[in-house]
């Protein structure tokens, strides 16, 4: 039973990693400075460990949903 619990914890860590800003920038195509700006504004949740900023991938993905564009009017503005 304990082995299953530990295995599940490891699986969760791999599927929902903590990303530093450089890796998060690569994942999201947003610049590190843009990400820092959102953190500074207090809109993007983060962790700070020994001076290193980390963002949980699942938290970032959830945060990004607020920027989703699905209205036709918004799409027309892009074209």
Structure report:
This protein is of the alpha+beta class. Helices cover 59% and strands 14% of the residues. The chain contains five helices and three strands. The chain has a three-stranded antiparallel β-sheet.
Strands, helices and their partners?
Blueprint: H1 2-15, E1 18-20, H2 21-28, H3 32-41, E2 47-49, E3 52-56, H4 57-64, H5 72-78
Brief sketch in words of this structure:
The chain is of the alpha+beta class and 79 residues long. Helices cover 59% and strands 14% of the residues.
What's the number of helices?
A: 5
Main sheet: which strands, in order across?
1-3-2
Termini separation: 56 Å
What is the general shape? Answer: extended
The proportion of residues in beta strands is 5-15%
Mean pLDDT: 87
Q: What is the alpha-carbon Rg in Å?
A: 16 Å
Most strands sheet = 3 strands, antiparallel
What letter string, H or E per element, gives the SSE order?
A: HEHHEEHH
> Which structural class should the secondary elements be placed in?
alpha+beta
Number of strands: 3
Low-confidence stretches: none
DSSP helix fraction: 55-70%
Which properties best describe this structure?
79 residues, alpha+beta, three-stranded antiparallel β-sheet, 14% strand, extended
């Amino acid at each position: 039973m304990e082995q299953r619990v530990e295995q599940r914890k490891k699986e969760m860590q791999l599927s929902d990693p903590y990303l530093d800003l450089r890796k998060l920038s690569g994942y999201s195509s947003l610049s590190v400075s843009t990400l820092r700006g959102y953190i500074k504004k207090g809109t993007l949740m983060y962790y700070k460990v020994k001076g290193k900023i980390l963002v949980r991938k699942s938290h970032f993905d959830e945060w990004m949903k607020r920027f989703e564009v699905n209205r036709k009017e918004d799409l027309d503005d892009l074209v």
